[in-house]
Design brief:
37% of the residues lie in helices and 11% in strands. By secondary structure, it is of the alpha/beta class. Strand 6, helix 8 and strand 7 form a beta-alpha-beta unit. The chain is globular, with a radius of gyration of 19 Å.
Length: 273
Amino acid sequence: MGGIGDLVNVFPTLERLAAAYAVDLGTGGGACALLARHDPYVRDVYAPFVYKPIRRAHRRLIERVLSPFYRRVLLLDEPDGAWRARARHMSAVYAERCGCAPPARGAVYLDAAARARAAAWLRARGIQDFVYVTQLVRRSRPLRSWPLPHYHALCAMLRARYGLPVLVDTVGSDERAVADGAIPLDALDILTAAAIIERARLYVGPDTGPTHIAGALGVPTLAIHVGHPPEICGALGERVILVRQARPLDDPARTTPEQVMAALDQHRLVEAS
């Protein structure tokens, strides 16, 4: 399986499996592999492994090759595109396939080294309290991308409301320019970025890996959910607030920065300075 959000949501289930089995995991390379290799409940990680095998013949081949070496082989990525129409969260689907109860939230495993790198990065810039924003605009996914002007307007509103620095993560985004006065994050490894998120007063972002990380770490999180229904892929956590569309895959521009700020006011995730 692969995808940062997928991993965050399956880690609690792997922890339960590890009580009875040695667990190996195949996932993507790069950030996925780094995140998976820091899961203390995973014995070994195969990366880069096959990402989202859809074809039935492909899936049967993986199972046939691996079955002689394992008691169970579980392909957790969906076998088709029909998952978008199912009203079940992906974490519950993963847990069911593994024979476990669904988790209340995901998990991320940070070590002292990642936390030290995060602290050093912030200290070098004189940053203590801050808001963390993930800006993700993908031209190939227009119905799942919040518009760039909305991000910029929101950053200005957040600075005015809270009087805190706004750090903007643009990793993977086609639009890298950040709002005036915002602080762009360097290209950090996923564990250091997660450790910075852990220290944020507030996290705001779309349905993407860092948003799932924030929810899993218990950071006050406002998820701007555009695209597929949040019931199947929204960030989990007791401190997560969802700003959702009137209907899935609506025009993302209809979800406004004002709506996001209104949700912050309503739920009081953090208090203004």
